[in-house]
Amino acid sequence: MTSKLLCAAFILAALTLSITFSLQPDQQKVLLVSFDGFRWDYLYRVPTPHFHYVMKYGVHVKQVTNIFITKTYPNHYTLVTGLFAENHGIVANDMFDPILNKSFSLDTMNIYDSEFWEEATPIWITNQKAGHTSGAAMWPGTDVKIHESFPTHYMLYNESVSFEERVAKIIEWFTSKEPINLGLLYWEDPDDMGHHLGPDSPLMGPVISDIDNKLGYLIQMLKKANLWNTLNLIITSDHGMTQCSEERVIELDQYLDKEHYLLIDQSPVAAILPKEGKFDEVYEALAHAHPNMTVYKKEEIPERWHYKYNTRVQPIIAVADEGWYILQNKSEGLMCEYVTIISSHSASLCAKVDVMDNKALYLLVE
Ligand SMILES: *[C@@H]1O[C@H](CO)[C@@H](O)[C@H](O)[C@H]1NC(C)=O
Ligand SMILES: *[C@@H]1O[C@H](CO)[C@@H](O)[C@H](O)[C@H]1NC(C)=O
Ligand SMILES: *[C@@H]1O[C@H](CO)[C@@H](O)[C@H](O)[C@H]1NC(C)=O
Ligand SMILES: *[C@@H]1O[C@H](CO)[C@@H](O)[C@H](O)[C@H]1NC(C)=O
What start and end residues bound the annotated signal peptide (predicted)? Predict the structure, then answer.
């Protein structure tokens, strides 16, 4: 989740699979699983028998459209709130809120300030307010106090904790004397390795096989615990990934004096906070700097991205074309990532659907 080495990036897409059985309303149980950065076509790169098993007996949506911007935290919060980033307030993995005068940073795991999360109410809280209980195994935000609450059961985020341990907790909570009806399970790969290797690398094959084995393990454990036939399982991801290259880097230092602004978030959507009195200078310097970077004043951000109306969106954003990477200075080392930006697809979930919004997934969980 946090590791960003070589060149990898996000594109729209990810997958969703779901198995639904007809249950009495009072028996409804949901387990929502996210494999970070699982691009939709990974399913077909190598044999993925466990995914195909679920697809065969469930419902498969070929592509899930992420919100703008396609980062881990914004999209995971969308999945559990049904809201765009401008509405739920987690507008990036790295943020600055000028009113709170506080920063949020995934890179330093400085994400525990409740105020960043409280523009929305995540589903575990809604579930608990309705008298039910929830359990979360490292889903982003689930170990943060939000509106004075935590999930009924949760694990403190620790990326070293194995998938098997996370599954064990989920099973324990679903089978306890007071069972949860909502489980949330998160795993950092294939995102971590995708950043490391690049999504198009042949070395991603074994990584995808490993995820498929992890899904197999989850299925096996659910069957063993007699949960397989009594819960709704949704498997999805937050974003896809695209390959980038050292040939496609946009270095802000070439155009702009770094004394004139703060770079709050980097790529593929650079969030730029000009220093006092420097807005025009910064904007003019960047506006036509590079053909593969589109620069927007905040008020010019296209409405369709639903990314404008939040104080945490900085006065200027610069958006790289797909496959391009924005950084301040190449000496920082290239950490190439990319997210596809525009989504025009939406649909509700039924067997024929190929593409759906991740916002709509919330309705399923709900
Ligand atoms: C914002 O916080 C910083 C310290 O993090 C402080 O130096 C600065 O004065 C604060 N600004 C305002 C306007 O309160
Ligand atoms: C994180 O998990 C690993 C593996 O279980 C453990 O060794 C380590 O102590 C944990 N770290 C923290 C901060 O709890
Ligand atoms: C990048 O940073 C290095 C070291 O600070 C500096 O020497 C170089 O001029 C910078 N690159 C540009 C294009 O400004
Ligand atoms: C990058 O910019 C060039 C020149 O405008 C354009 O031809 C090319 O399509 C752009 N690349 C992408 C990936 O959009």
Answer: 1-22
